[in-house]
Design brief:
Order of helices and strands: HEHHHEEHHHHHHHEHHEEEEHHHHHH
CATH architecture of the largest domain: Orthogonal Bundle
CATH class of the largest domain: Mainly Alpha
Structural class: mainly alpha
Length: 579
């Protein structure tokens, strides 16, 4: 009774008989749980209700509970069959889990024991290794010391190779064989010391001392030779610098002499020019004086003739007139000698009358750019653009076949004829920037390093922006840009600043770019084929024309174009009206 009171005073006020508790549940227990003794069943029941080990204590016949566990106590004391059945199920589940936890703990304990055994075996092996190593070091200590010294000497000898690499060619050839021989001997020494017997160690030590002196001597010789080579290199560079300075001074002296000679020639030329001008002025002055004297003589002769005639009339004597050369005979003969096309003596009126006899004839109609501007929607229909492109590619094919590139393909340089036979025939004009890209034998001309920018900025290819030599593919790229402008009203880079035009063209040429898709599927495929051409490719003009065939809508090249039908088809085209 005293122990019970102490237990209740220590915090276990509630109690019950676990025997009676077992008997109340015994009738409902399954066979597996019915074999359990009352104490074990009560413990399983408490744990299934969520009580910990320190929440209850067993006496001889009773079990005691801590304060605050009244809800669990009331739950297990209920005699409700349904509650009792649920508690029995919980007991069974807890028992299974407890046994599984015990199995886990057993496996964990076995693994821990295995690891502990392996650890102790490793420690024993380590102790044995340390002991064996200590005994081996005691036995072979002298041999180990010599071996370590030999290995250190072999490692330091690697410096010989580094010094050899810094020598010049002649010195390297001189020392290479001896250096490699020394390194090979050191490797043999290390192998010999490693396998030497105790009685051979003294000989190995003597060989080591010999090789120490040999390596030190060789390194010193190599460093000395390296220093001499560096001095020779500095001397060579100094002489080269002096020679370069001498050549530079000689060049400047020659330039100054050339400038002085040029100045003297200019001064002599100016003196000769002044002398020539003075001589011409003197000749003009003499000619004027002679002309004035001749006029005076002629005037005097006319006066003399008039006086003589009057005297003869007064005396009744007739004088015979002396024939004289016509005044214009000399000038006319000079004009004949100078040739039929000499215009130096023509007056302004004669020149004006001759020029006004010329005539200007109009051979071509408006260019494609002007025809596009006349459209109410400022664009052309896909069928018209496709036929223009097909004829433009044919014109470029003829130019490329002759070995030339146009370099300025744009709508303003494409016109149709004005006659009945040529009004549907496209003419490519303005060949002021053409350049031969093939030699007469058909080989490509060598590209120039800095060909310069040629063409119109809006229609030039990206290669032209990069400053590269133009090829036939660049003409076709300009043709593609021209077709896109005819379809889209304006090109995307028309309003872009000059520095950003190249990037805008790069974005336009990206496959399935927004602006490229606006041109339609057939034209997008054509542009993709043109943009993929490399500088070394020979364009297949016929294949490019075939890509545009479906875009013509079945119309032939001789059928009416947009401007002949009052731009009727442009209102139904699928391209956008502005960019």
């Amino acid at each position: 009774m005293t122990s019970v009171l102490k237990l209740m005073q220590n915090g276990f006020p509630s109690r019950t008989s676990f025997g009676s508790l077992y008997s109340s549940y015994q009738a409902k227990l399954p066979p597996k749980l019915a074999r359990m003794d009352p104490r074990l069943f009560a413990k399983c029941l408490f744990r299934a209700l969520g009580l910990d080990q320190h929440d209850f204590q067993f006496g001889l016949t009773r079990v005691f509970f801590r304060a605050g566990k009244f809800s669990e106590f009331d739950q297990m004391m209920k005699q409700d069959p349904e509650s009792m059945s649920s508690l029995i199920v919980k007991v069974n589940e807890w028992l299974v889990k407890a046994r599984f936890r015990q199995a886990q703990y057993a496996v964990w304990s076995v693994i821990k024991l295995k690891n502990k055994i392996a650890y102790r075996i490793a420690q024993v092996t380590r102790l044995q290794s340390a002991a064996r190593g200590h005994l081996a070091r005691q036995r072979f200590s002298k041999q180990i010391v010599v071996y370590r010294k030999a290995c250190a000497l072999l490692k330091s000898s690697k410096e010989i190779k580094k010094i050899l690499l810094r020598l010049n060619e002649a010195s390297r050839v001189k020392y290479t064989s001896s250096a490699h021989s020394t390194i090979r001997d050191l490797e043999k020494l290390v192998a010999h010391v490693k396998l030497a017997k105790p009685e051979q160690l003294e000989k190995a030590e003597n060989a080591y001392e010999h090789y120490v002196k040999r390596v030190s001597t060789m390194i010193a010789d190599l460093k000395r030779q390296q220093k001499n080579d560096e001095l020779e290199e500095l001397e060579r560079k100094r002489k080269e610098a002096e020679e370069k300075e001498r050549q530079e001074a000689e060049r400047k002296r020659r330039e100054e002499e050339e400038k002085e000679n040029q100045r003297r020639l200019e001064e002599q030329k100016q003196r000769d020019q002044k002398a020539h001008e003075a001589q011409l002025a003197e000749q003009i002055r003499k000619a004027a004086v002679e002309k004035e004297e001749a006029e005076k003589r002629e005037q005097q002769e006319r006066l003399d003739v008039m006086v003589s005639n009057r005297l003869a009339d007064a005396d009744g004597v007739a004088l015979m007139p002396v024939p004289s050369a016509p005044p214009d005979s000399a000038s006319s003969s000079m004009r004949l000698r100078r040739g039929h096309f000499d215009l130096t003596h023509w007056t302004y009126a004669e020149l004006r009358d001759a020029i006004n006899n010329s005539m200007v004839m109009q051979l071509l109609g408006p260019n494609i750019g002007d025809l596009k501007k006349r459209s109410p929607v400022k664009r052309l229909s896909p069928t018209t653009v496709a036929r223009i492109m097909i004829q433009g590619i044919a014109a470029l094919r003829d130019v490329h076949t002759l070995g030339y590139i146009h370099r300025d393909v744009k709508p303003a340089n494409m016109c149709f004829g004005i006659t009945q036979n040529t009004r549907h025939v496209l003419k490519l004009v303005d060949y002021g920037m053409v350049r031969r890209f093939k030699n007469p034998d058909g080989t490509r001309r060598k590209a120039r390093n800095k060909p310069g920018f040629r063409g119109t900025l809006r229609y030039s290819s990206i290669r032209v922006h990069d400053g590269k030599e133009q090829v036939p593919a660049d003409d076709l790229v300009s043709m593609a840009y021209s077709g896109a402008e005819l379809l889209l009203v304006n090109l995307p880079w028309k309003l872009v600043c000059t520095e950003d035009i190249k990037q805008a063209k790069i974005d336009f040429q990206v496959p399935n770019s927004p602006f490229l898709l606006l041109t339609g599927p057939f034209f997008s495929v054509f542009c993709g084929a043109v943009f993929s051409l490399r500088s070394t490719d020979e364009p297949d003009h016929s294949s490019l024309q075939a890509l545009l065939t479906d875009m013509t809508g079945g119309k032939s090249l001789r059928e009416a174009y947009d401007w002949e039908e009052n731009y009727r088809d442009t209102f139904g085209s699928s391209t956008t009206e502005s960019v």
